[in-house]
Design a protein that fits this description.
By secondary structure, the chain is an all-alpha fold. The chain has 21 helices and no strands. The radius of gyration is 23 Å and the shape is globular.
Amino acid sequence: MILLKLILISLFIRSWLKSRYSSLVEPSDFFVLSFLLIYVPGFIFNPSGQTTLNGLHLPSEAATRAEAGMLIMLATGSMVFILRRYAERRFDSLTRRVQEISTKRSTLVIAGIAALCLAAMFSLLMISPEFRKFKLDILRFFSFQFEGSDYRRLRNESYSDGWIIEGILARARFTVLPILFCLTLYPFLEKKRLVFAAALAALIFVALPASLSKLPIFFFIGYAVILGACRYPRFLDIRFLAAMLVIATVIIVTMLVVLYTAQYQSAVINGTVLPLNLAIERIWGETYSVIVRYFTVYPEMLSYTGFGGINLLAKFFGLSARLPDIEVAKVLLGTDSGSNPGVYFLGGYAAFGMPGLVAYALLGALLLWSVDFLGRKIRVASLRATYLAVVGMNLVFLNQIALHTALVTYGIALVPITLLCLDILVRRIVREENSQLHGSAFS
């Protein structure tokens, strides 16, 4: 089995590298590299999925099926990458990158409109007492004033049913807000006013996207870093990105150690919690363990969810919705255990078993190809940089969210379409302005 794993991992990496038509980073590269970084170590070194965090003893049969599922995903991805290489070599229109346009006026206007939208959203939300209290708790969270029990209570109970926090802000956090965030920062990064841009980014983040989860911290730092890198093409080389992801992983582990130290102060002092071990277990141990858990629960412990496990289709067919990530957690960890989201193809497996896994693996690989293709058609400089930053980072969500959830809730379908439409609109306005200027020059 280990030999087969190494062969398919090598084939996946080789076919991905061969399918790339240049050394410049594209959105799909963020997912591929993060997937290899997050899941492959556990796939090779911890195939049983056993961890010390939850004390679970997962059956060997489930671990074997999980390995088969990973092998199918790697084989399917390799097939699509090989097809992509053939198609893009044969049809030049698939790889042709349109020429970038950048006008100082349009960049400033776009940034001004984005900033006004953020200010208006914040002002409207501040009317709500729930939002004001939420922001005060955010400030307490960032100033390390929470113990572990307080943190869990606030995160799991206080705001879990609020329509403003969970209904509006949670929906906008990785869709609308990142776009406005990047468009507002772009002119300052373009002028290399890095200190001001960093301060403005922190202000925007605390005011709107910040939550009691640690995840938005990493993602909005990622948006800002990629946006800044777009001003320096040498930073967008795939080899540089691979190196930076390794460095980012070290930074993330360090940040988690600091956060866990603050969050579990008493336990760290007593020696019952080791922050570094906890961070490593969370990143590599838990992620692959979740895959094995899905294969443990379905179909031996629960039946496949079918269309009921896909919210949009469940509503369309009038079925009662089932949430596989919550079902897996409840069955294996208890009723108050939260959720166990996993890599994107697990949603297909939970719904229809191995055929669903194959379908999701194929659709996911085709999605990666599609977002790269659309990104090449954006011409406005600030929108092109925003596209790479937001879509590239959001594709990383495929490592922990079902494909159908990532498409809508996490903007992988909505953000590319939105930015493409904005690009068309801005280009039309710029073209009309230029034609009017030429017309007046000859009149």
